[in-house]
Specification:
The complex is a heterodimer of chains A (111) and B (116). Chain A is mainly beta and 111 residues long. In chain A, 0% of the residues lie in helices and 47% in strands. In chain B, the strands form 2 sheets. In chain B, strands 2, 4, 5, 6, 9, 10 and 11 form a 7-stranded mixed β-sheet that branches. Classes of the chains: A mainly beta (111), B mainly beta (116). Chain A binds chain B through residues 32, 36, 38, 41-46, 49, 87, 93-104, and chain B through 4, 6, 31-32, 34, 36, 43-46, 49, 51, 91, 93, 95, 97, 99, 101-110, 112.
C-alpha cells in the first residue's frame, strides 16, 4: 500500500469547517483513499472513502485532487466530539487486504 | 451499521498469566478478522490476520506462540496473550470484514491490557 503523509496536529474552532490534508503522491491506480478516526481509548471509526471522485456522506466530505496525489477530508461544522486522531490510508480493495495506519493527524476542536 | 464487540474492555493480570480477548461480529459474518496493538501515543500496528477455519497470518516480529489466535467461527475470533509480561501491556483492537466489494473493516472498541 502507498504511504501517506499527514500533519501531526491541527486545531479547529468549534462550528467551523475542519480541513484535514493528506498527501499520497505514490498512490496506484487501483488504490482507494480511506479515512478513519480514533477518539481517545476507542477503536477506529470509518468515515469515508473514495477512488477519484469527490465523496460526501453524513459525516464528512472527501476531496481528491485530479492527479489523485492528495486529498482533503472536510468536517463541515466541527464539534468538540470531533476531537480525535484522523488517519488517511490508501489501500487496494480486495479480499483480506489489511489497513496500514500511519501517524495520523490529531485534530483538536476548541470552543 | 456493522457492529464489532470486544470482551473484556479492560483487564489487569499478573505477570506470567494468560489472558484471552474475544472479538465478535454482532450482525454480520466476518470472513476475515484482524488484530492490532496500540501503545500509548502511537498508531495501530497490525499483529495478525485470521480467516475462519484457517491458521492466522502473523506480521513480522509478532510471536505466534505468544499471541494465540483462534477464528473458530464466522462471528468470533479470540486472541490469547500467553505468559503475559509488563511489556505486553497495551491497547488491543480487533477488526472484522465481511468481504464484499469494498472489503470494509469494522473495528471493535478495544481492550486495555495491564500486566503487573
Amino acid at each position: 500500500d502507498a504511504k501517506t503523509t499527514q500533519p501531526p496536529s491541527m486545531d479547529c474552532a468549534e462550528g467551523r469547517a475542519a480541513n484535514l490534508p493528506c498527501n499520497h503522491s505514490t498512490i496506484s491506480g487501483n488504490e482507494y483513499v480511506y479515512w478513519y478516526r480514533q477518539i481517545h481509548s476507542q477503536g477506529p471509526q470509518y468515515i469515508i472513502h473514495g477512488l477519484k471522485n469527490n465523496e460526501t456522506n453524513e459525516m464528512a466530505s472527501l476531496i481528491i485532487t485530479e492527479d489523485r496525489k492528495s486529498s482533503t477530508l472536510i468536517l463541515p461544522h466541527a464539534t468538540l466530539r470531533d476531537t480525535a486522531v484522523y488517519y488517511c490510508i490508501v489501500r487496494v480493495v480486495n479480499a483480506g487486504n489489511m489497513l496500514t495506519f500511519g501517524g495520523g493527524t490529531r485534530l483538536m476542536v476548541k470552543p | 451499521g456493522a457492529v464489532v464487540s470486544q470482551h473484556p474492555s479492560r483487564v489487569i493480570c499478573k505477570s506470567g498469566t494468560s489472558v484471552k480477548i474475544e472479538c465478535r461480529s454482532l450482525d454480520f459474518q466476518a470472513t476475515t478478522m484482524f488484530w492490532y496493538r496500540q501503545f500509548p501515543k502511537q498508531s495501530l500496528m497490525l499483529m495478525a490476520t485470521s480467516n475462519e477455519g484457517s491458521k492466522a497470518t502473523y506480521e513480522q516480529g509478532v510471536e505466534k506462540d505468544k499471541f494465540l489466535i483462534n477464528h473458530a467461527s464466522l462471528t468470533l475470533s479470540t486472541l490469547t496473550v500467553t505468559s503475559a509480561h509488563p511489556e505486553d501491556s497495551s491497547f488491543y483492537i480487533c477488526s472484522a470484514s465481511e468481504g464484499g466489494r469494498y472489503n470494509e473493516q469494522f473495528f471493535g472498541p478495544g481492550t486495555r491490557l495491564t500486566v503487573l
